[in-house]
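Lab meeting, item 3. Inverse folding demo.
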C-alpha cells in the first residue's frame, strides 16, 4: 500500500513571491522541458500539462515549485508538493516523478538547484554550524514549506538571468544565501549530511556509488557491505531507511532504467538491452520491466517514441 505524504500547510497568508518567481521562470523557460541556464547548477522546469510518470535517478538537489503541483514516488511513499514548498534530495535516489497539476495558461514551473557538497561544507564551517551526531531519520528526501527568505533569494537568483553580466558576481552569493536559509531551517540535518563524510549516510553513499558503477554485475551483499564499511545487517537496515528500498531493489531500478535508455536511445532490442545491464534471463527481464514500467519492453518503447515524436500543429 502506498503511503502518501500530503502537502504541508502553514498558517502564514499566501505569499506573492511564488507568483513573481513563476513569472520569471516562465519568461526564461518558454517551452516545456528541463532548461539549463547561464547560472551553473541552476535549471528551470516547465510543463504545460500533466505528465506521464517519469523514472529517473534524482541527484542531490533543491527543488522549489513556483506554480502547479508535482508528485514524487520513492519506494511506496508519495510526496506531493506545489507552490510555496521545496523539496530537498540528499542522496542519489531512483524516483518516479509526475506533474499532476498544469495547464497551458498556468503551466507547472519549478526552479532546481543542484547541490554541491563542498559548497555546503564550506558554508557550514564559515557559519560555525556543528555536524549532526546522528543521521536524520527517514529517506534521503524531505519536503517542507519554502520560507519567505528562501523564496526571496530564489527570486533574486532567477532574476539575474535578465542581467547576465551580474551572474558571475551575484549568483554565487544568492545560492549561498539559499543554502544558508536551508541550513538554518527544517532541512538542516539533511543538508549537513550531504556535506559530511563521518556517519552512516556517507556509508550508504559509498554503497550507492558502487552500485551505480557496477549495476550490471551480480550483487553480492557482502562485497557491497565492505564498500560501505558496514555489516550486512546494518547495510540492509540503513540503506532501506535512506532510499526506501533494499540494495537489490535499488540495483534493479538502475538496471531497468538503463535498459530503457538503451532501447529508446540506441534502438537495442529487449534481449540485447537486458543482457547489457546484467540480465541472463530474457523472461525475467521482461517480467521485471513490465512490473516497473507498466508494459512489456517493446510496447513501452513504442509508446515512448510516439510520445516523443513531433506532434502536429494544433491549428492544422
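The presenter then showed the designed sequence:
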Amino acid at each position: 500500500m502506498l503511503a502518501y505524504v500530503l502537502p504541508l500547510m502553514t498558517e502564514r497568508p499566501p505569499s506573492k513571491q511564488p507568483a513573481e518567481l513563476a513569472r520569471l521562470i516562465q519568461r526564461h523557460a518558454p517551452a516545456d522541458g528541463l532548461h539549463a541556464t547561464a547560472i551553473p547548477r541552476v535549471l528551470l522546469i516547465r510543463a504545460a500539462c500533466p505528465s506521464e510518470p517519469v523514472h529517473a535517478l534524482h541527484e542531490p538537489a533543491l527543488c522549489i515549485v513556483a506554480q502547479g503541483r508535482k508528485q514524487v514516488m520513492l519506494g511506496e511513499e508519495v510526496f506531493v508538493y506545489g507552490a510555496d514548498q521545496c523539496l530537498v534530495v540528499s542522496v542519489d535516489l531512483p524516483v518516479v516523478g509526475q506533474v499532476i497539476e498544469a495547464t497551458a495558461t498556468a503551466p507547472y514551473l519549478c526552479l532546481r538547484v543542484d547541490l554541491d557538497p563542498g559548497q555546503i561544507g564550506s558554508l557550514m564551517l564559515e557559519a560555525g554550524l556543528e555536524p549532526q551526531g546522528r543521521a536524520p531519520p527517514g529517506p534521503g528526501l524531505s519536503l517542507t514549506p519554502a520560507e519567505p527568505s528562501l523564496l526571496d533569494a530564489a527570486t533574486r537568483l532567477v532574476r539575474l538571468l535578465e542581467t547576465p553580466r551580474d551572474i558571475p558576481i551575484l549568483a554565487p552569493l544568492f545560492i549561498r544565501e539559499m543554502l544558508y536559509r536551508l541550513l538554518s531551517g527544517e532541512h538542516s540535518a539533511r543538508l549537513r549530511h550531504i556535506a559530511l563524510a563521518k556517519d552512516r549516510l556517507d556509508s550508504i553513499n559509498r554503497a550507492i556509488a558502487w552500485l551505480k558503477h557496477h549495476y550490471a554485475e551480480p550483487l553480492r551483499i557482502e562485497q557491497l557491505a565492505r564498500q560501505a564499511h558496514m555489516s550486512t545487517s546494518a547495510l540492509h537496515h540503513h540503506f532501506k531507511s535512506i532510499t526506501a528500498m533494499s540494495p537489490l531493489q535499488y540495483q534493479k531500478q538502475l538496471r531497468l532504467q538503463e535498459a530503457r535508455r538503451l532501447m529508446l536511445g540506441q534502438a537495442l532490442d529487449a534481449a540485447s538491452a537486458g543482457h547489457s545491464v546484467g540480465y541472463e534471463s530474457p523472461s525475467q527481464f521482461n517480467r521485471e520491466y513490465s512490473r516497473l514500467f507498466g508494459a512489456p519492453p517493446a510496447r513501452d518503447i513504442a509508446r515512448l517514441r510516439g510520445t516523443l515524436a513531433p506532434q502536429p500543429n494544433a491549428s492544422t
